[in-house]
Amino acid sequence: MADLPQDLRTALEAALSNVPAAQLTSSFQRLSTRYREEQAATSPIMASPADVITYSAYRMPATFAAVRSTLEQVALQLPDFAPVKQLDLGGGTGSAVWAATDVWPSLANVTVLEQVTEAIALGKKLTANAESPAVRTTTWTTGRLDQSTFESADLVTVSYVLSELSTEQQQNLVAQLATQQGLVALIEPGTPGGYERIVAARDQLIAAGHSVIAPCPHDLACPIPRGRDWCHFTSRVNRSAVHRRTKGAELGFEDEKFSYVVTSPTLRAHAANRVLRHPQQRKGLVSLRLCTDAGELREELVSKRQGPLYRTARNTEFGDPWPT
Ligand SMILES: C[S@@+](CC[C@H](N)C(=O)[O-])C[C@H]1O[C@@H](n2cnc3c(N)ncnc32)[C@H](O)[C@@H]1O
Fold first, then answer.
1. CB-ligand 1 contact for 63 (6 Å cutoff)
2. Full set of structural domains in the chain with CATH
3. Which pLDDT tens digit goes with each residue over 48-73?
């Protein structure tokens, strides 16, 4: 469970306090239908102040959770990685900034590049009183990804953006990311389409000399049978009252599905295996579906007789490295 930091929750509650429920519900219907299409946008999808505030109510908790879970896995693989500079491309209202600084308090210099001025206005408002100096002093730049040359950074985040770009724009963006010296983190919805975009970007980055830090335990071809399955993970998100009202939802939580890849042109580190499903627990047995460092998919059964390994397996979660 990746809850929003308390200072972000407080800022969101203040920003949302005077927004009529009917406005949130109607913007939510339009935005969620459009985002589900996963079609490249010829003009910004989240365009008006009403869209932006609605996005912050129902998507920021989920995109924060997905980015945080992703970066947590990177921190496990690279315990000495202490980034100072983050560049967040298509940053919207800033979820990835909050997530990255939550994982790496070493961050001190953060820039968001975003095309929608209303998203930047809300992002600035939300970060104005953040506890983290890095979040508070974020530089918000208005601009288009397809018309910009990026400065280098220790960490570049591109979260839930690729689907809004044409295939050619995605390839141009990834080609530019491949020239970065720092880590490149791409996160997409955990749908077949999101996975395809991540695999295409992964292949392009590897061809340009990058190595995968997470989730893949290898730089070989993805072994998941295309068209029949797709690699994705989940993060549980608590729904606040306004989140539930915006979506017309009753449950107090939701599971955000996401696909991701994080690569580096210089660092080499990855898990020995990655757990690709919720581990199945049967009497005295835990069954793990793994992607291995040989670039293969494999089931591993861990039995109670294996003592400490069994106890570790029982506490292992979907998306974790194995052995943990
Ligand atoms: C679904 S939102 C994701 C926002 C944020 N990264 C997050 O994870 O919550 C996609 C964002 O990408 C921005 N975007 C899409 N295409 C862009 C482009 N060509 N240049 C700059 N920003 C772009 C949109 O304006 C929007 O804010």
1. yes
2. 6-264 (3.40.50.150), 273-322 (no CATH)
3. 899 999 999 989 999 999 999 999 99
